[in-house]
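Record pair follows.
FIRST:
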Amino acid sequence: MNTTFPDPTRWASAILTWFRQHGRHDLPWQSNDQQIHDAYHVWISEIMLQQTQVNTVIPYFLKFIERFPTIAALSEAPQNDVLHHWSGLGYYARARNLHRAAQQIVSHYHGQLPQTLTELMALPGIGRSTAGAILSLGFQQHATILDGNVKRVLTRALGEQRPLTTAVLQELWDIAEKLTPTHAPHAYNQAMMDLGATCCTRTRPQCHRCPISPLCEGYHLGTPTAFPVRLTKKTIRPTRETRLWLIENPEGAFLLMKRPQTGIWGGLFCFPETNTHTIWTMEGVSLLEPQALPAFRHVFTHFDLWIYPMHLRLTEDCQVPEGIWYNPATDTPPGGLPAPVIRLLNQKSVANIATHLNTFFKASATRDTSLSDM
């Protein structure tokens, strides 16, 4: 690590000067007054931005805040509704933790976000960096953040040669705290996140635009993308397989079942699932021959899931002991839906429309031929 790190005043001055001209000042969770942001909006945006890019988050944030404008509204909402408004963002534990945290804030803090690091970190889903963002951006307190963008900026500037183990991360936290100015910490923290997201990017850093390139060890070495250093041990990503059953009744509705709160897609509505060697059956129900749909891969953080969907039509309506019938053409989603379920429903909806159109045009052609013979 570079032990001759620059003076914190010089560092912060360069960052803030760059931020005033090149930073992001019009994000929807930022208020018109750059000095004051809604702490609730900051919290929601910080959770959504974990593992997710800003452009993806913006439309979800706007819809989420429209439906849950306050912590009280979020705490009172059914979990299914919260998950529904999170559908497509992935990492659904974030939404479940938001919901639980809102309920705790209402019950323990009269519906107001607490304003200490310890209290914030005691809430579900809020770690040290997120708590620091809430305190600095939402309450203008002197607090430090160390998200992925800030880690990248610091490790490149420092020329940190070690992988980010727990001990190295603690050193980074100590340095980040020393560099965070007491004046305008909210602007500095936003500037550091913006610098990492828009200039000091993972694969193509724009060092010629960077305000700290004169101070950056990675830039002087000519290898900024070598930082942060990753563990050299390569592991083969685990792969799992599953079969999802698209059970469709004569009205075009599909059977969805709510998953347990724990495990993948916890609390979301999903197609019935079996292993790849099991056929879905239900006593007393007449079924047509199942149709195999193209398999596809869904990527999780720590493993890949190969999904082998099967389409199974029922010859008549039936009551199911658990689950609900959902028609994507007419019904409101019952709650959150995993991305693969949305993908399959969209594919079947398009296929059904195409089938109906083909039937219509064939019938029209037959009528036209009959009329021309008259």
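SECOND:
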Amino acid sequence: MIPINKPIISNEEKEMVIKVLESGILTNPSIEGGPFVREFEKELANFMKVKDAIVVNSGTAALQIALMALGIKPGDEVIVPSFTFVATANAVILVGAKPIFVDIDIETYNIDIKSFKNAITKRTKAVIPVDLYGLPVEMDEIREIANEYGLFIIEDACQAQGAIYKGRMAGTIGDIGCLSFYPGKVMTTGEGGAILVNNDELGRKIRMIRTHGQIKGYDSVILGGNFRMSEINAAIGLVQLRKLPSFLEKRAKNAKLLMKLLEDSNVILPKIPDYSIHNWYLFTIRLRNEKERDYVREKLLKEGIQATVYYPTPIHKLPYYKSIGYGDLNLPNSELASKTVLSLPVHPLVKEEDIEKMSKIILSSTS
């Protein structure tokens, strides 16, 4: 089976893990973190071209900490797209605020600008635009509206590390950016995430929140938790980050070939603006209806290709969110996408012959 995504681990990562184990320093509760955490943060900030990168134990933690650092609290509203992974909304709930779900642009699968603007109220404090599948959101338009209404922007770039919007790295354009290093992402630390900022005061506050609101130890001055990344995870991340450019290059090569082979098909292909660079975390096509999507997926699965639906249910339709009153929301593009999208593997382990096989199955199944 060709998996939809897979971590690429070599002897280099294994050797770094052994190095950490032999050092005896597996984690460090100080505000600065341990030696591998500090080195990983420095290299990550340089790669992302941002002032500060604070690594944490998951992308979800990154989102929650971002909200805490900006003072989002009960009674506040935070606008989020419904068509994304549930972590984006869960982070809002976890700080006691209220997620306000909006629809997506059906062409890009990212937040619809008009829906975003129409959802703003006196209680709105922030927006979390998601760079879905690895395509940067229209941040200039988001920023213009956010500035008009005095809103914070938390850019959820958990799927978009290495993607570029008008010359700037995804995750570095909002007030805070968040990354994920889950094993299926374009690089991994095993589990992990990062918070990107260009503000010293905000960066220091985030580091405090990461370790129980402490500065020197046993002196909690603000509310925080244990969101620390371990030294083992950081060591893996260091190696993966150095490999990331080659990973992204191979993904782009695979995506380009698949795009070419499917250009005359009946499927709707990804649309990338000239000023954006996709990181090809996921190559997502759209079929004409749910029946055709499921048929194509079954054909691919039978041939050993793990075509996957991201996401089969918009967040507002998930059982928990239905139980707290969101189930009757009308977000037609989110619901259409959930019934018609299909993501295909283009990660670095996918070979040219795999791409050709995929395209033949799709072409024969949709003619």
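COMMENT: The first strand starts at residue 52 and ends at 56.
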